Amino acid sequence: MLRPYIFSSLYRAILIFIIFYGTIANLAAQEELPSIEKQFQINRIQFNGNRAIDSDALIEVILTKETPGAVSQFFYRTLGDKIGSKPEYFDAAIFTEDQLRLIEYYRSNGFFNPSITTNYIIDSSDNRIDLFFNIEEKRRSYIDSILYVGIDTLPSDLSSKVLLNPIIAKGAPYLSSNASSEIARVLDFLWNNGYPAAKYESEKSGAFKFTSTDNFYIKFVFIPGKRYQFGDISVHIDPPRKDVTDELSVRQLDFKPGEIFSREKVISSEGSLNRLGLFESARIDHPAISETTSANIIPIDIYVRPLNRNELSPELLVSDEGGFFNLGAGVGYTNRNFFGDARIFTAHTRIRTQDIHRWNFGNVFHGKGLRDISVKGTIELQFHILQPYFFTRTLSGSWTSTIRAEKQELIILSILRNNIGLSKQFATYTYGFFDWTLERVSPEIIQDTLKAQSILSTLRQEDQRQFNSILTFTLQRDKTNDAFSPSAGFFNSVSLEESGILPKILPGIRSGLPFTQYYKATLLGRWYQDLTRRRFNILAWKLKSGYQNKYGESKYSSVQIPLNRRYFAGGSGSVRGWRARELGAMPAELIQFGGNFIFEGSVEMRINHFQGFGKLWFLRLENLRGVYFLDFGNTWSDIVDFKPKQIAVAAGIGLRYETFFGPFRIDYGFRVYDPAAEAGKQTVFQKIFFRETLKNAVFNFGIGHAF
Question: Which of 471, 345, 496, 349 has its CA nearest to residue 420?
Fold first, then answer.
């Protein structure tokens, strides 16, 4: 940390006397504080004269708080402080200390001679008091010059790089917190560029204030020490296994022997080892580093504990894939280090039901069985091989083969799919994915639905087999701070898809079946912000848009874009006032066939109402979150059909319970604006709330947040 601005012991004594005398005189000049014999609830706290620092920041500095509202106090009296808040009463001693806290806070922000006085207004009839802090900020201190000592001993390329993006700069206001952050930044740079023993000399450094201008001269003194390199690498496998070689661990590292030492590379390499899928735990260690170390070589030790090579396990499936509530079961087999080279082989057989709570079991057991139109679900057999190291550590490959039958209301899709994928890490938070999918889709129309004469032509267009070769490229940037329940950061992705080029060039790969030439682009963004800095109130919002269309010969043919590749709206991950695949800006009977353009978004407020609570039976109450959401969006047959007035809007509330595999989710959404409703009944304000609005409300279930 920087030392206070000091020139001599005499100057320090004079300065302390002036500050003490000025503060005491300041307090003595104020009105006499109210008697503590009578209690006054604090009705309002107001700051006057603060131009550089807003009131929201100042209210966080003081301990005196405004009394809560009557409702919150009622809950406090009846249910305790876990639900409500106690009334806040005026305390003269704390109020006086708050004045000193504000003075200190202003000094830490570059105002070294602020004047802060207080006054109050008492409402004796209501036993309430309004408090006022009157602030005269006066002159702010700026940085006149900065000196870095010790940086000149670095190689010329490093000495210039270390000063490229400083946190503080000449001419900027002096903030002690920024000075501390600059020290941390420089040390971090040194530790990651071969100087793990670098340190900051606080006794020889300081921030020195000029009495004539109140501005600062800052001096940073660093001792880089010796420059180190990575030494020999030793791998320790416990328990030893013949198939798990040292090379599998070494090739995952971001460094090699002889390279410049970097703490950052050690941490990232340890993360890469733990993500490999072979180890229960992986740790990278090295001897303690100090200036007394004779050599400039740091040996590295890797400690890994392999997982079981073979694993057979049952699966309970709960998800909201496709916007439905999916519940199912399966069996999975995993072989880790399949034929060596850290390859992972998995095989799964799964049965999933969709919206099982809406099945007509009377028809299922006494009528048409699983072919009843109320039945939705999938059954699949899948084989997957992951090659985590494909030429380089940042490139992985995969092969997936799937046999799948998918039952929707009117159609059964039989799908044979082979997928070859590549995954590339371009930067710390940026990933790219390339997939080549060969997919044969055989639809079957459920015959009884042909009674619906209005969609006969559409059903017949869907009733044709296809064999498509689909190329997909996806670019993602993920800077969220948690994979399951993010409270800060963002996730952005763009996905481009094309079908038809390869069958056109190589007609032999499609076995004589028709194929579709189409293109598709999807944009997705998610953003998160912790409004309280303690994960109590998290604001999350999402935007998604996508468009697809046929091209070439398919533009003029009856061959459709495969049903499983179209856009659908509604459901637990979309506009939650509608069930999955039940929202669309097209005739009602055609909504189930999806659209070619989608636009939707969501805003959620995730509030931890029970933060700090204990347990209720087996539930940890602080793992519960209340969610308040607003969703909007729709799908259209084509982008030219888009009309803003057709954007549907839903709102609702939900609950989340955090588990080790993500939050379990239940949402209750109702329609705020339904563009497909009859005129005069489109908005929530035009309907009878309980009889009409809540009657059509939808419960949505799932694992994980909606986005």
Answer: 471
CB 118, CB 129: distance < 8 Å: no
Q: Which domains does the chain have, with CATH numbers?
A: 31-136 (3.10.20.310), 229-306 (3.10.20.310)
Q: Taking 90 as the threshold, does the pLDDT of residue 72 lie above it?
A: no
pLDDT, average across residues 668-684:
93
Tokens of 533: 């800095």
What mean pLDDT is predicted for residues 383-391? 95
Give the C-alpha separation, 636 to 584, whole Å: 6
| Orientation angle between helical segments 92-108 and 9-28, nearest 10 degrees | 140
Total residue length of the chain: 707
**Is the distance from CB of 671 to CB of 685 less than 8 angstroms?**
no
Amino acid (one-letter) located at 256: K
Q: What pLDDT score does 10 carry?
A: 36
Q: What is the mean pLDDT of residues 472-497?
A: 94
Q: What is the mean pLDDT of residues 468-482?
A: 95
Give residue 262's pLDDT. Answer: 97
The overall average pLDDT reported for the chain is 88
- Are the C-beta atoms of 188 and 221 separated by less than 8 Å? no
Contacts of residue 278, defined as CB under 8 A and 6 or more positions apart, other chains included, come to 244, 248, 304, 306, 307, 336, 337, 342, 344
> What's the CA angle centered on 308, arms 304 and 312, to 5 degrees?
150
Q: What is the pLDDT of residue 13?
A: 42
**437: pLDDT confidence band, cut at 50, 70 and 90?**
very high
Task: Please tell me the distance from the alpha carbon of residue 543 to that of residue 74, in angstroms, as a whole number.
Answer: 40
Residue 31 DSSP label: P
Helix (H) or strand (E) holding 101, with range, is helix 92-108
Q: How far apart are the first and last CA of the chain?
A: 41
In percent, the amount of the chain with pLDDT more than 70 equals 91
Residues with Cβ within 8 Å of residue 224, at least 6 apart in sequence: 150, 151, 153, 154, 190, 195, 198
Q: What six digits make up the tokens of 275?
A: 């993500």
CB 354 within 8 A of CB 378: yes
CA–CA separation, 593 vs 637, rounded Å?
10
SS3 321: helix
Higher pLDDT, 485 or 293: 485
What does the pLDDT average to over 573-588?
A: 92
**pLDDT of 482 higher than 80:** yes
Q: Backbone phi, then psi, for 297, in 5-degree steps?
A: -115, 130
Is residue 90 classed as helix, strand or coil in its secondary structure?
coil
Whole-angstrom distance, CA of residue 256 vs CA of residue 241 = 24
Residue 586 CB-half CA count within 13 A: 24
Q: Residue 567 has what DSSP assignment?
A: B
Q: Identity (one letter) of the amino acid at 399?
A: W
DSSP per-residue codes, 216-269 = EEEEEEEE-----EEEEEEEEESS--TTS-HHHHHTT-S--TTSBP-HHHHHHH
Give the pLDDT score at 80: 65
Q: Which residues of 481-501 are buried (b: 16+ CB within 10 A; e: fewer)?
A: eeeebbbebebbbebebbbbe
pLDDT at 615 over 80: no
For residue 351, the model assigns a pLDDT of 95
Which residue, among 543, 577, 598, has the nearest Cα to 650 in the 3D structure?
A: 577
Residue whose C-alpha is closest to residue 98's, from 3, 33, 1 = 33
